[in-house]
Design goal:
The protein contains 13 helices and no strands. The protein has 303 residues and is mainly alpha-helical.
Length: 303
Amino acid sequence: MTPAAPDRATAKTPSGRSGSRAVALRALLRDKRAVVALAVLLLLIVAALFAPLIAPYDPSTQNLLLRLRPPAWQDGGSSAHLLGTDQLGRDMLSRVVHGARVSLLVGAGAALLAGVVGTAVGLASGYFGGWADRTLMRLADVQLAFPSLLLALAVVGFLGSGLWMVILVLGFTGWVSYARVVRSEVMSLRTRDFVTEARAIGVTDVTIMRRHLLPNVMAPLATIGTLHVAAAIVAEASLSYLGLGVPKETVTWGGMLADGQLYLGTSWWVAVFPGIALMLTSLTINITGDALRDVADPKAYRR
C-alpha cells in the first residue's frame, strides 16, 4: 500500500482543481473576445493547412500584364484578383494565404523547440537546486543580456538563412522564459508531500520530474508557448523583411512587406494586406494566450 501513496497524492492535485477549471472554462466561453479570437485562429490554421486548395492561383506565377492591379472594390480592379496583384502580377490573395503556412510553421516550431529545451532546463534547475541551479540560471542570464532579435540576426547571418535554420535559431533564443517559469513552479512543488513520499519509496529523480512535476507545470507552459508563437511569427517576419530569414523564393509575409514598401504611395495593397495578416495573426494568438492564462488561473474568475 505504501507505493500507491504518491499516486494518490498526485491524483488529488488535478481532481481538486477540476471543479474550478470547469467554472473557468465556462466563463471563458462566455468571453466573446476569446471566442472570436479562437475562431479566427482556427480559420488561419485551416487556410495554412489547405492553402493549395484555397488559393485561387499559384503564388509564384507572374504576369507582368496584370502588375499592380488594385483590389476588386477599387476602380480598375477585377473579381479575378480580389486583393489585387503585386509588382510582378502575382495574385495577392494567393500569396497572403500561402504566407500563413510559413508563419504558423515557424511560430509553432520555434515555440515547441524552445518549450522542450526550456522545460528540461527549468525542471533540472528547480528540482536539483545547488550548483546545477546556479550554473543553468547564469547561462540564462548570459543569454538575456543579448536582445533576442539581435542574437537571431547574428546567428542567421553567420550560419546562413533557411526555413529550418530560422526555426532553430528562434527556438534556441527563446527557451529562457520557459526555464524561469518552470523553475519557480518546481521549486514550490519539490517540497510537497507527494514528492517527498515518492522519494521515500525510491522513485528515481527522472520519474519524479516526468510523472509528478511536469504535469503540474503544463498550464503555465501552454500560456507561454502560445504567446511565444506570436513572438516567433513577428521575429520571422522581421528577419524575412531584412532578407535574412526564409529564402526569397518562399512566400512569407515579411518578404511581401519588404517588396511592397516601395509601392506604399501608389499601390498600397502590396504591403498593407500582408501587414494586416501579420497583425491579425499575432493579435488572435495573444488573445488566445490571455484566455489560456485565465483558464490556468481559475482564481481570476472569483470575484
